[in-house]
Specification:
This protein is mainly beta. It is built from 1 helix and 6 strands; from the N terminus they run H-E-E-E-E-E-E.
């Protein structure tokens, strides 16, 4: 028991410095993140050709950077936006073309702040 607290502190520090701390689901609630690193992926289905799909939302950054990119089903990027320190920033990107699974990807680099995204597919 004597070593439990130092071990827990070491584990929390390792978690903080490797992936960061993420609280919330970006697509449902504003997600607060502390030193977040890595990538999050969210899929958006287009059932018909030429259906408009996309994401919109906001981000407020204290430090670090987050890049939101929307990809077509064939993997080509449609649009990208950076969340840089300051804000709040408005995010909005749309694409249309072939039916299939579009993907919104968020790349975090030492991101400290809040981010929220919502699906804006036509028909929603």
């Amino acid at each position: 028991m004597r070593y439990a607290l130092p071990i827990l502190l070491l584990l929390a520090a390792a978690w903080y410095f490797t992936t960061g701390i993420r609280v919330g689901l970006v697509t449902f609630t504003p997600a607060t993140m502390i030193n977040a690193n890595g990538k999050s992926k969210y899929k958006i289905r287009a059932f018909e050709a030429k259906q408009v799909v996309g994401v919109q939302g906001t981000c407020t950054v204290k430090s670090g950077k987050a890049t939101v990119t929307l990809y077509r089903p064939d993997g080509t990027p449609v649009a990208a936006q950076d969340c840089l320190p300051g804000g709040p920033w408005s995010l909005g990107m749309q694409g249309q073309g072939s039916a299939g699974m579009y993907q919104a990807t968020i790349n975090y680099r030492n991101f400290n702040g809040k981010i929220e995204l919502n699906d804006v597919s036509a028909g929603n």
